Amino acid sequence: MIIERYEEPNWLSNTWLVAARPGGDALLVDAGLDAETILAAAAGHDLRIRMILLTHHHHDHAGHAAEIARRTGAEVVAHEAEVPLFGRQAPVTRVVGDGIRLTCGSLSIKTLHIPGHTAGQLAFHLEGVGLFTGDTLFRRSIGGTMAPGHTTFSDLRHSLVERLLAFPDDEQVLPGHRLPSTVGEERAENPFLRVMLGIDPEGTETADLGGQEVGLVVWARDYDGGHKAWIRRADGSQDVVPGSRIKRLT
User: Fold this and answer.
1) Where are the alpha helices (DSSP H) in 108-241?
2) Pair 175, 137: CB distance under 8 Å
3) What pLDDT, in 10s, does the model give residues 88-139?
4) Is residue 128 helix, strand or coil?
5) The CATH classification of domain 2-200, taken from the options 3.40.50.150, 1.10.3720.10, 3.60.15.10, 3.20.20.70
């Protein structure tokens, strides 16, 4: 089995190259890294890229899909809610929803619709490989709910707790940014999930978010070395936001 992670140095976003064996068909999960690097990696294993699975429409995940597809003839797969948002960066040729079974060579892939970070965010479960979680679950962090195309915190929480954490603890988590993990590691060590699961108490600090005082439910490190915050407003609405938007008050 070939599972290789290629990280875009500015956005720290991952393009995953997956194949059952050298000399066969391969797929990509996301396409945020330049075509030359990805095609050279595939050629090094004598692989034919047949499918590009896109977790969502943001440029750091889909920006090079069109060029890779043009040069390989690969099928481009995405959720129907994302299709209008790709523009020219990703000519989607196959639209999918939740629970769709895909095949690429001998690889078997199942889609999971996990909205929150975006409306059409997808995870991809590859049997015998792992769970590609896009920008919903990272190693020790989670996705935000204020990026372009986002839905709600309630959606994000459901996607995390009811969908992704439903997998066994030894399932590999292969995220959209930075390093891999496992479901069990994240259940035990991810500060956002620990509060969602009732393992740890909510924080009691207050903070300023754009001139509005909010409760700071969780303040923790993000995948890029900065911080991320789960906040709650006075009206009860909640979001997950970059730490750069937060000024801690207490």
Assistant:
1) 153-158, 183-189, 191-196
2) yes
3) 888 999 999 999 999 999 999 999 999 999 999 999 999 889 999 999 999 9
4) coil
5) 3.60.15.10
